[in-house]
Specification:
It is a single chain. By secondary structure, the chain is α/β, with parallel strands linked by helices. It folds into 3 domains: about 250 residues, Rossmann fold (3-Layer(aba) Sandwich); about 170 residues, Dimethylsulfoxide Reductase, domain 2, CATH 3.40.228; about 120 residues, Barwin-like endoglucanases (Beta Barrel). Helices cover about 30% and strands about 20% of the residues. It contains 23 helices and 27 strands. The strands form 7 sheets. The chain has a 6-stranded mixed sheet with strand order 5-4-17-16-15-6, with helices on one face. The chain has a 6-stranded mixed β-barrel with strand order 22-26-23-25-24-27. Strands 10-9-8-12-13 form a 5-stranded parallel sheet. α7 links the parallel β9 and β10. The N and C termini lie far apart (about 55 Å). About 60% of the residues are buried.
Length: about 675
């Protein structure tokens, strides 16, 4: 940490929910952080940051930053609070939680996600606290659960090719991803490959910034990715663009998959996907005949009913053509499974002492907050502790979420940097430190380096790290276990134990995992069979289909003709989910909440660019400004998110319209499985 009357540079890591996990350098002058930049010594960051994090000092020193504990003084949702001292706040919180826990600790629910991706400020001390308490578990599904389960069932975990070798690929399929907005450093590698002659194909319902820069854009309908993948398999089979040796030695279930794929000729898939037959045929030809071929898959495509199956289908493709044999071939959705995090030592599940609390799915928090006690559900939720998340803005089906948070009998504590939509409903808001003010250690889901974050400045005002809050709260609850004495640097060391050289992290800020360049060149998948599992016995044992298949969306034009437009809600380029929405410079760039519409859909409704529209379905209604745009394909509208509700024209956002239905695998949300109608107004 910097001392006064000095200028120093402090090594750190970006905490945000992005595959890049950049290495940061923070310049501190006389105790004040004046600049945050990318570390040029870290090969994945290479000195460059996204527009959002390059403005991180603006976030840390934001005039609306919460710097003192607050106690609610008005109705829930009003945002009316008065300052209180830490002791008063923590004493009251502990007393309230003790009273609830005496009845049933499962009535207390933690709610957190990826406001920080850090292992320490995320669940490092929080998990210990909630395990010791015996609170309900939280199923953290809201982003990646379906895709993660699809990878687990096929490849054995969240594993894949090393991102740096995309630069050597000759064909790159960018599937369900907009890396210009959300994976900047991968995009630089893709551009390097392009300059060396690689062909780039973007598969996405929206003509994103990335799609515009690729050689080809395949604008399929939302939720039809598995159909496209199966049609590609069909063509690989009938043209014999297969690596028979790799299939025989390193895969399981080939004959069954072959039979299913042959049911998906390009003509069938073209009708389902809404793309030309020839586009499918040519894509299959390119994938079957180009080596090395690499797929950069991302999470947008798994936020539909069949999202897990779709990821399974795409994840089968590299094994069919033997792409894993080369370091620049294969697939990457997430690299997080490569990291040897010692979660048992960090989270201490032994503190449960044999108890088995129920699990609450964060994606159905709207329904669950409105449920009464029952033998099937367990106790009514009486308390929520929210950290690293903004569920009132980001959870699906706001018309259920908001009334749940507004319950007078629900005790809610929120750890936050800003007065978010969720903080408005809190009984207490506790000021949290930003990344520049605390220790943390980070994995990545886009590369395979561990990064250490050192505090660059002292905490502003009365802000405290999440760890400090749960550490002190544990003592006030009467928990005497010695693990609550561990300081943050100790937690950083505990996260990996001896698996990572901590001195190297201290010296340079990052450490590269020792992994093979081509992880599955000789098979060795961490599945039960040791092979790429086209067929999963584990799924069959659960009563599910052991093979990947196309599952139509829950909401289709046939099932709901009153709402004929499919809506996806990808993140606005200058926000990261609901983070950064209150940074004025970024909000000024983004403008205002928008709904992108194809010209034909807009004309049929008498809608022009710049006009206010009402987007609605049976769940709710949302008003925003229309933009007639080539980014939208016919029949699909793009509701860019995720704006804070309080900044929307009517105090709502796009999640007024999304549902709490869950995916086929992983119990994830189905944000992009959503039908709407649009009218002027």
């Amino acid at each position: 940490m910097a001392s006064a009357a000095s200028t120093v540079t402090v090594r750190g890591a970006c905490p945000h929910d992005c595959p890049d996990t950049c290495a940061l350098l923070t310049t501190v002058e006389n105790g004040v952080a004046v600049r945050v930049q990318g570390n040029p010594d870290h090969r994945h960051t290479d000195g460059a940051l996204c527009t959002k994090v390059a403005r991180y000092t603006e976030r840390t020193y934001h005039p609306e930053r919460l710097l003192t504990p607050l106690k609610r003084s008005g109705p829930k949702g009003s945002g009316q609070f008065v300052p209180v001292g830490w002791d008063e706040a923590l004493d009251d919180i502990a007393a309230r939680l003790k009273a609830i826990a005496a009845r049933d600790p499962q009535a207390i629910v933690p709610y957190s996600y990826a406001g920080t991706m850090g292992q320490v400020q995320g669940e490092g001390m929080a998990a210990r606290f909630f395990h010791r308490l015996g609170a309900s578990h939280l199923d953290r599904t809201i982003c990646a659960a379906a895709g993660g389960e699809g990878l687990l069932q096929t490849l054995g975990g969240k594993l894949g090719m090393k991102v740096e070798f995309f630069a050597e690929a000759k064909l790159i399929l960018i599937w369900g991803s907009n890396p210009i907005a959300s994976n900047l450093h991968f995009w630089r590698l893709a551009q390097q490959a392009k300059r060396n002659g690689a062909r780039l194909v973007c598969i996405d319902p929206r003509r994103s910034e990335t799609a515009e820069k690729c050689h080809e854009h395949i604008a399929l309908r939302p939720g039809t990715d598995a159909a496209l993948a199966l049609a590609l398999m069909h063509q690989l089979i009938i043209h014999d663009w297969l690596d028979h040796d790799y299939i025989e030695q390193h895969t399981l279930g080939w004959e069954a998959l072959r039979e299913r794929a042959l049911q998906w000729p390009p003509e069938r898939a073209a009708q389902v996907c809404g793309v030309p037959v020839q586009q499918i045929v040519e894509l299959a030809r390119a994938y079957g005949s180009t080596k090395p071929a690499a797929i950069r898959l991302n999470y947008g495509m798994q936020r539909v009913r069949g999202g897990g199956n779709a990821v399974r289908a795409v994840a089968c493709l590299p094994a069919l053509v033997g792409a894993w044999r080369q370091r620049a071939g294969g697939l990457l959705l997430s690299a997080s499974g490569h990291f040897p995090v010692d979660r048992t030592a960090l989270h201490r599940p032994d503190l449960l002492a044999g108890r088995t609390p129920r699990t609450i799915n964060m994606s159905t928090i709207g329904n669950d907050l409105l449920r009464e006690a029952s033998p099937a559900f367990g106790p009514k939720i009486e308390a929520l502790i929210v950290y690293n998340s903004n569920p009132v803005a980001v959870a699906p089906e706001s018309p259920k979420v908001v009334p749940g948070f507004a319950r007078d009998d629900l005790f809610t504590v929120v750890l936050e940097h800003f007065q978010t939509d969720t903080a408005d409903f809190a009984d207490y808001v506790l000021p949290a430190t930003t990344q520049l003010e605390h220790w943390d250690i980070h994995t990545s889901y886009g590369h395979t380096d561990v990064l250490l974050n050192r505090p660059a400045i002292a905490p502003l005002g009365q802000s405290r790290p999440n760890t400090a809050v749960f550490r002190v709260l544990a003592r006030r609850m009467g928990f005497e276990d010695s693990c609550f004495d561990d300081d943050d640097e100790t937690l950083c060391r505990t996260a990996f134990g001896a698996a990572v050289d901590f001195q190297q992290l201290l010296d340079q800020g990052f450490s590269t995992l020792p992994l093979p360049e081509a992880p599955f060149a000789e098979g060795g998948f961490p599945t039960p069979s040791g092979k790429c599992e086209f067929f999963s016995q584990r799924l069959t044992d659960q009563g599910l289909d052991g093979l990947p298949d196309h599952l139509p969306n829950f909401e289709t034009a046939d099932s709901d003709p009153r709402h004929p437009l499919a809506m996806i809600s990808p993140p606005a380029r200058n926000f990261l989910n609901s983070s950064f929405v209150n940074v004025k410079s970024l909000r000024d760039i983004e403008g205002e909440p928008l709904l992108e519409m194809h010209a034909a859909d807009a004309a049929a409704r008498g809608i022009a660019s710049g006009q206010m529209v009402r987007v609605f379905n049976l769940r709710g209604s949302y008003r925003c400004k229309a933009e007639v745009s080539q980014r939208a394909r016919p029949g699909v509208v793009n509701g860019l998110g995720i704006w804070w509700r309080k900044l929307g024209p009517d105090g709502t956002n796009v999640n007024e319209l999304t549902s709490q239905r869950l995916t086929d695998l992983g119990r994830g949300p189905t944000f992009y499985d959503c039908l709407v109608q649009v009218e002027a107004g």
